[in-house]
Write a structure and sequence with these properties.
Layout (H helix, E strand, L loop, with lengths): L26 E6 L4 E6 L12 E5 L1 E3 L3 E5 L5 E9 L4 E7 L5 E3 L10 E6 L5 E6 L7 H4 E2 L23 E4 L11 H9 L3 E7 L22 E5 L1 H12 L4 E4 H11 L15 E5 L14 E5 L6 H10 L1 H13 L10 E4 L1
Parallel strand pairs: 1-18, 3-13, 3-15, 4-12, 15-17
Antiparallel strand pairs: 1-2, 5-6, 5-11, 6-7, 7-10, 8-9, 9-10, 13-14, 14-16, 17-18
Helix pairs in contact: 5-6
Length: 344
């Protein structure tokens, strides 16, 4: 599949620079795969498209203050963007600055001085950084919330770049489909008999990297740490056994769910998904056979991205292209702080 099939022209003014208030006031483009039709609604209308017995699965990861500023021994400024934790003191990171080997960070407020050493460079822009001690306890003091590169305005309230159910720290970016939920909306959904379960996937900034190869299949997908708990696996298997829908909140949740179903043995009588934790490298492209996800809530994604490839695999290339053309014509807001789609 040529990468041009995942390309489209987006007017820059449609890239949302700030979230709407309240969260569930964002627009919702409802896409019905069976009838190939659309409805223009708002996110607070979501319960109208759910039914008792549905299982809604969301990603409970929390964005950390992953952008940390330090200095080289020469005094030059260094910016470290934490991407993925490898062990207690070692991280995969982006490091801004030339010939960086040693980094010192400003005082933590308790008299300690944190330092780091660049120990490896496995990729063109990715570095392995080892800290003098675990950095997480100091990120509230030393770090700041990293926003995607297409958002040029500083967010006033960092909590708006977190879902209301975020609880497992580790992401460099938010699972943005979940940003539309409010406590009141979740209460309405649960009151109508919809069950809610959680998975965890720590989002890396590779999520925003475009596919640079000529074909989608030639792209090397990034790996992300995720977990599918036992309780969630049991809820999915029960829903599947009863013919209920499993609705993924976001591409991150969808990736976890499908990773949990990708065990070699899926013979009759085996559970649909198994609980697990670890890294997933599942790459979902058009032609993929979906095993778990019956419906999907998602935002509008970047052209030439792995996320758009996943959406195309779920709704079909032609329907995806017509949907994005419609969204642009109707002036939907795109990307992290933008509007949402419900794909049924």
């Amino acid at each position: 599949m040529h990468i041009s099939e995942l390309d489209y022209e987006l007017p820059p003014e449609l890239i949302a620079q700030h979230p709407v208030e309240p969260r569930d006031a964002s627009r919702l483009l409802v896409c019905d795969r069976a009838t190939q039709t659309h409805q223009h609604r708002h996110f607070y209308d979501l319960p109208e498209f759910l039914r008792s017995g549905d299982l809604l699965v969301a990603n409970d990861t929390s964005v950390i203050n992953a952008r940390v500023h330090g200095r080289k021994p020469t005094g030059g400024k260094v910016e470290v963007l934490l991407l993925r934790k490898l062990d207690e003191v070692t991280w995969e990171a982006l490091v801004g600055g030339r010939n960086v080997r040693q980094i010192a960070f400003p005082g933590t407020g308790d008299g300690k001085q944190i330092s780091a050493e660049v120990v490896e460079r496995p990729g063109e822009t990715v570095f392995i950084v080892r800290f003098s001690e675990p950095i997480e306890p100091y990120l509230d003091v030393l770090g700041e919330t990293p926003l995607p590169p297409y958002i040029h305005e500083q967010i006033r309230d960092p909590a708006r770049y977190q879902t209301i159910y975020a609880r497992v720290a580790g992401s460099a970016a938010a699972p943005t489909a979940g940003l539309h939920f409010t406590p009141q909306l979740l209460e309405r959904i649960q009151a109508m008999g919809v069950r809610i379960a959680f998975v965890t996937l720590h989002v890396g900034l590779d999520t925003f990297k475009p596919i640079e190869e000529e074909t989608v299949e030639a792209h090397k997908i990034h790996t992300e740490w995720c977990a599918l708990p036992l309780a969630t696996a049991e809820a999915i298997n029960e829903a599947h056994a009863k013919g209920r829908r499993v609705i993924a909140v976001g591409t991150t949740s969808a990736r976890v769910l499908e990773s949990g179903a990708s065990a070699p043995s899926q013979a009759s009588g085996h559970p649909l998904v198994q609980p697990f934790s670890g890294f997933t490298s599942l790459y979902i492209t058009p032609g993929y056979e979906w095993k778990v996800v019956d419906a999907l809530i998602t935002n509008f994604h970047l052209p030439r991205s792995t996320l758009l490839a996943m959406i195309s695999a779920f709704m079909g290339m032609d329907f995806m292209r017509r949907t994005y053309t419609l969204a642009i014509r109707e002036r939907y807001r795109f990307y992290s702080f933008g509007d949402a789609m419900l794909i049924l």
